[in-house]
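The protein record filed here:
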Amino acid sequence: MFRSNVTTSFRSVVAACGLAAMPLMLHAQQNDRFNIQQIAQFEVPWALEFLPDGGLLISEAVGRLRLLSAGGVLGEITGVPEVSFGGQGGFADIALHPDYANNRMIYLSYAESGRGGTSGAVVVRARLELEGTGGALVDLEPIWRQVPKVTGQGHFGHRIAFRDGYLWISSGDRQKFDPAQDMHSNLGKIIRLNMDGSAPGDNPFAAEGGVTAQIWTLGHRNPLGLAFDPQGQLWTVEMGPMGGDELNLVRRGENYGYPIVSNGDHYDGKPIPDHGTRPEFAEPAVWWSPVISPSGLMFYSGNEFPEWRGSALIGGLSSEAIVRIEFDGEKAREVERVAMGRRIRAIEQGPDGALWVLEDGRPSRGGNGWLLKLTRK
């Protein structure tokens, strides 16, 4: 667990962990599919994003933004906003503006506190000023918030994606069920915005104004993965209730049915009608029961695993796996599940095509999660 603001080298990190020093690698493991390099541990890590120079940003849900330089030095980014940490809430996603190389803008999501014990997700943008082995967020500006803030600490969603000059945000239902169908709330929705947070005039419900104008699709539960495929189609993977995790193709204006339909049931045992009983709602392309507990979604395009190009990779929490999905147009199917023996919180492709993975660091499990580099065995 690294609480110090003092920049530390990989050798220092190694010493803190009691492991033998190795450049860019703390400890190597193997499984049936990968060579696994354990790079460093972080306190409740949530997301990772590569910088153009090969450096890596890592968010810690407790409220820190870390920088791992391309040379292997671990530092910290200051100027991070105060977050509401607890349950599923805290500091979350990181995404570079498509023109980051010129404007140095990054977008971040996190849970913030409200009045009366409430909380909600917020997305901010800021300029990232790097200096030495660290840096700072400058001119931080909130551009989107979940409406309304509610009690509880679950189902924030708040993944971020970009495409064609637009910002996309996944917004969870906050474990409140009905807001996913409420057009005057942006909970349980996929959101489409301009880069400054305003609602585009061609959104499906733009004429309604207010938060309704932000909505691209509705009827989602807890969408924790959001990514575009090589053909430009948007996909989301979301946690279902007791059973019924879903991979959905996100189509303009569609309603995905939650909580009216689901291929799972409520945790109290009360049944939910399946998607097939209500054809007016969009059905998932893939669904899982038992669940995989998805944590994120990415499409692979690298050279380290050429046979995986065009596949989606989903991090699995309860399934402790990386789930690979193949596509045929708008159809999808699971084709492989690589057992990792640890809860996978996030997965990204590195500049060389290797996979970089964050292990979940739940406080109940000690709070620490490894950053792993996966290469071909």
Notes: The first strand starts at residue 8 and ends at 9. Helices lie at 10-17, 100-103. The radius of gyration is 20 Å. Residues 1-26 have pLDDT under 50 and may be disordered.
